């Protein structure tokens, strides 16, 4: 028996997953293509021929990513702006000029440590870990590891600017 859906439910499904089934089918179809067909698909999707050195797996992943971007949306404009600036200057930009990623209120940070996944929710002035409030990420990192750690470093929020600048 099929379930009937109201017009509002159909509209909501279209907004949330509009085209997600078609995207899944298109990505599944990519897996069956050979390299020459993938090169043609690449040219159609990106508007240019792929490098002759690109392997099949990378082409499938890049095309699949573009399909998902089309359906679910791409990067936030602020992230795209940072990437454009870094690409335009190609190493001329100093690491301190690249904004550090900051965890704003509501951000959930997940870190796996010794096989256990730890989840921290960032609030305005503190963080919550396992139902308990901590003043800083460093306190949480210490509770997890038993040693002093930089919380932002432990959760991957620090040190990325240098990696981006190096390329």
Global Rg: 22 Å
Identify the strand order in the major beta sheet.
1-2-3-4
> How many discrete domains?
2
| Global shape | elongated
Largest sheet, in brief, is: 4 strands, antiparallel
Tally of strands:
4
Helix content: 40-55%
Report the average pLDDT across residues: 80
Tally of alpha and pi helices? 8
Distance between the termini: 55 Å
Strand content: 5-15%
Low-confidence stretches: 8-16, 163-167
Order of helices and strands: HHHHHEEEEHHH
Structural class: alpha+beta
Model description:
The chain is of the alpha+beta class and 167 residues long. It folds into 2 domains: 66 residues, no CATH class; 53 residues, no CATH class. The protein has 8 helices and 4 strands. It has a 4-stranded antiparallel β-sheet, with helices on one face. β3 and β4 form a beta hairpin. The protein is elongated, with a radius of gyration of 22 Å. It starts with 6 loop residues before the first helix and ends with a helix. The C terminus is likely disordered.
Brief summary:
This protein is an alpha+beta fold. Helices cover 51% and strands 11% of the residues. The chain has 8 helices and 4 strands.
Layout of secondary structure:
Layout: H1 7-17, H2 20-31, H3 35-46, H4 56-72, H5 77-89, E1 108-113, E2 116-122, E3 127-129, E4 132-134, H6 137-145, H7 151-154, H8 160-166
Helix pairs in contact: 2-4, 3-4
